[in-house]
Amino acid sequence: MTEAFSILRAHLQELITLTDGEFEYLCSHFQPKKYKKHTIILHPGDRVHNEYFVVKGLLKTFLTDEDGKEHIWQFAMENWWVSDYQALHHQTPATFAIQCLEEVTLLQLSYSDRNKLCSEMHKFEHFSRMKVTSGFLNMQNRVMALLKNDAQSRYQQLLQQYPTLIQRVPKALIASYIGVSRETLSRLHS
Questions:
Q1: Residue range 154-171, pLDDT digits in tens
Q2: Which residue pairs, CB below 8 angstroms and at least 24 apart, start in 6-14?
Q3: What's the CATH fold of domain 3-148?
């Protein structure tokens, strides 16, 4: 078993326990993928067929508005899942782009295989439901922070939740994520 699948197993075991046979069967549905820094693995308009478990590296999910301004929806680092989930679920073209900010190692799971595993393995269905719920709650908290908190509070919240992110991401991307200009972030950071 490769290191990537060992990391996946540890991640799964945070919520469920799988026998060796169950885990081997589950792994047979994942495809290891490696991408170089700056690679865009999903473009707006693409059909979305997969979600990705991040084994190593860092990605951003973003969209670019009509004026060319980039809006970052999510950073995804080790032990996170990433996709354009609305497009994946509805099997519609992607709204977001996903780009590698570092060299990344991913485990790719197709939407059809995910559904197959959920119908065949109650444990994996439970894991998926718990992860989706957790992701929804995190995004709800992020949107609430953008709506009601000032820039300083959003920056402090980011530092508390993801302390290592600041060292891995350029300040311009942090500014975009919390919804401020690069200059405003410089004032908050000093």
A1: 888 888 888 898 889 988
A2: 7/55, 7/78, 7/79, 8/53, 8/55, 8/107, 11/53, 11/79, 12/127
A3: Jelly Rolls (2.60.120)
